[in-house]
């Protein structure tokens, strides 16, 4: 019987009260007009612990960004009303939203489109079809990269460099 000793001399796991996540889970806004893909993304992201908001409409996406300030936007290139590129430009132009990381999703794989996407301010780029596992690791990587506000790294991912990122930083100093 050593119940007394457990309550008296600090038991090893006594700090467990502070381990509950105080901050809410990161929120990802998925802007995609293919319903099946949206569902798949939402399912997988929620499984990873993200909160997910989805929309198929570019204008609505702008409203959601303004209202909810998501931690990351997953943005399809081809959208019915406003293109993903245009949306990325708008988000990056507005100082209330320009720090929200953007990952572009696209079926286009040409070099030119990658450059356009990055020029428009996308933080990363993924070409369809992609594995959700790869996408999630990219999302995690982008979110890990954003603690500093004005760290403007130009990243050129996926240019046959393998899974490791080889960032080309234009203004490292
Ligand atoms: Ca689309």
Question: How is the secondary structure organized here?
Answer:
Blueprint (H helix, E strand, L loop, with lengths): L2 H6 L18 E5 L3 H13 L3 E5 L2 H11 L3 E5 L7 H10 L8 E5 L4 H9 L4 E4 L4 H14 L28
Parallel strand pairs: 1-2, 1-3, 3-4, 4-5
The structure holds calcium ion.
Walk me through what this model shows.
The protein is of the alpha/beta class. The chain is 36% helix and 14% strand. It contains 6 helices and 5 strands, in the order αβαβαβαβαβα. The chain has helices at 3-8, 35-47, 58-68, 84-93, 111-119, 132-145; strands at 27-31, 51-55, 72-76, 102-106, 124-127. Strands 2-1-3-4-5 form a 5-stranded parallel β-sheet, sandwiched between helices. β1 (27-31), α2 and β2 (51-55) form a beta-alpha-beta unit. It is globular. The model is unreliable at 4-11, 13-18, 148-156 and 158-169 (pLDDT under 50). It binds calcium ion (CA). Calcium ion binds at residues 33-34, 76, 78-79.
């Amino acid at each position: 019987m050593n119940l007394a000793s457990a309550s008296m001399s600090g038991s090893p796991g006594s700090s467990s009260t502070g381990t509950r996540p105080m901050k809410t889970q990161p929120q990802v806004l998925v802007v995609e007009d293919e319903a099946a893909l949206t569902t798949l993304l939402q399912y997988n992201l929620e499984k990873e612990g993200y909160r997910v908001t989805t929309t198929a409409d570019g204008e609505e996406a702008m409203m959601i960004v303004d209202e909810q300030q998501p931690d990351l936007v997953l943005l399809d290139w081809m959208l019915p009303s406003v293109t993903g590129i245009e949306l990325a430009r708008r988000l990056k132009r507005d100082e209330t939203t320009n720090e929200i990381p953007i990952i572009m999703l696209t079926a286009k794989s040409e070099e030119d489109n990658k450059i356009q996407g990055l020029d428009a301010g996308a933080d990363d780029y993924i070409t369809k079809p992609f594995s959700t596992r790869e996408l999630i690791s990219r999302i995690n990587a982008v979110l890990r990269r954003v603690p500093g506000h004005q760290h403007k790294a130009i990243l050129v991912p996926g240019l046959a460099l393998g899974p490791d990122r080889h960032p080309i930083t234009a203004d490292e100093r």
